[in-house]
Specification:
372 residues, alpha/beta, three-stranded antiparallel beta sheet, 15 helices, 12 strands, 41% helix, globular
């Protein structure tokens, strides 16, 4: 199989597996205990926290381990709504956010009377910072805009939005699940208050994530119980997976800025353009987007049918979280892509183990199918 769906998930790097394995069977102690096994586990979690913090330009005290990116998103959206309810009930987001944000906001709208402003995007999928500034009200408690879109790779003007929020004293969250490790991130420079990390996007296992919370901020926990994670998330620490995320973060740090993946992606798109010419349309902005992602519409065709007829090619018609949906991508719809063109969209995403020969063969398979 030619795997071109790294935005959906990544394989666990063998070096990550090696790092985490001892914490299943040898160093299995509870980090909250005082004897040797527990102390060693505690130290391993602390080291992993520092590794994740280094990738983000943060302090270790600002990193909270979670079960996934969706939990991190929910913790911010719901936690801010509860913690900041005395200030107001208005939240600003974009129309192209991940379902973990949009569904959490819908929940707050229905059950807690939160009012949400959904900002539009342009034809590249970009939020205009001026729209953010115009939408902020005295009762605005949070702005949440994803760092990079999972379907088209568009990177948002996070620093500009962060400056606006900082000036207006409004908390700012960005879901950086797709951006972490692919582009340099410095949370202080970006002026973000919260940032989401998803482990399975950076060669760690599924079931581990992290949340950056700027020092000094209070956030109502989603999980109540004992005082793990400095009282911010109850539950015995998942030591092997915490270690895995730390190891994965360190490996990603060493690979920045992913220039080799951008070159592979660009060569792949160039080949498609040579073969298909004006029979394809690129959705999003390759130059300003993630180095790993290309969203291509095959005009006059259905993306799902193309992938169905090419079982040896692993890609997707949009977000993996929307798999099975017969509707066109909400992201492409928000970008104003014609529905017939959007129906032909396929997202290709390259990663650590992608080779040039795989991409050459993928182009060959697509050409044989579509031009047969």
């Amino acid at each position: 199989m030619i795997y071109l769906d790294y935005n959906a998930t990544t394989p666990v790097d063998p070096r990550v597996v090696k790092a985490m394995t001892p914490y299943f069977t040898e160093i299995f102690g509870n980090p909250s205990t005082l004897y040797g096994l527990g102390a060693h586990a505690h130290d391993a979690v602390a080291h992993a926290r520092q590794q994740v913090a280094h990738l983000l330009g943060a302090q270790a005290s600002e990193i909270l381990f979670t079960s996934c990116g969706s939990e991190s998103d929910n913790m911010v959206v719901k936690g801010v709504a509860l913690t900041q309810q005395a200030k107001g009930k208005h939240i600003i987001t974009s129309q192209i956010e991940h379902p973990a944000i949009l569904e959490a906001l819908h929940f707050l709208e229905q059950h807690f009377g939160i009012e949400v402003t959904y900002l539009p995007v342009d034809h590249h999928g970009l939020v205009d910072p001026a729209d953010v500034a115009a939408a902020i009200r005295p009762d605005t408690i949070l702005v949440t805009v994803m760092f990079a879109n999972n379907e088209v790779g568009t990177i948002q003007p996070i620093k500009a939005i962060g400056e606006i929020c900082h000036q207006q004293h409004v908390l700012f969250h960005t879901d950086a699940s797709q951006a972490v490790g692919k582009v340099p991130i410095d949370v202080a420079d970006l002026q973000v208050d919260f940032l989401t990390v998803a482990g399975h996007k950076i060669y760690a296992p599924k079931g581990i994530g992290a949340l950056y919370i700027r020092d000094g901020l209070q956030l109502e926990p989603l999980l109540h119980g004992a005082s793990q994670e400095n009282g911010r998330r109850a539950g015995t620490e998942n030591v092997p997976y915490d270690v895995a995320l730390g190891a994965a973060a360190e490996l990603m740090q060493a690979e920045l800025p992913q220039a080799h993946l951008r070159q592979l992606r660009d060569d792949f798109v160039a080949q498609l353009r040579k073969v298909f010419g004006d029979e394809i349309q690129v959705n999003g902005d390759l130059a300003q987007g993630l180095p790993t992602t290309a969203n291509i519409s095959f005009l006059g065709h259905n993306g799902a049918e193309i992938l169905r007829d090419l079982p040896g090619l692993a890609a997707t018609t949009g977000s993996a979280c929307h798999a099975g949906s017969k509707k066109i991508s909400p992201v492409l719809a928000a970008m104003g892509v014609d529905p017939q063109i959007a129906a032909g969209a396929i997202r290709f995403s390259v990663g650590r183990y992608t080779t040039q020969s795989e991409l050459d063969h993928a182009v060959h398979l697509l050409e044989n199918l579509i031009h047969s």
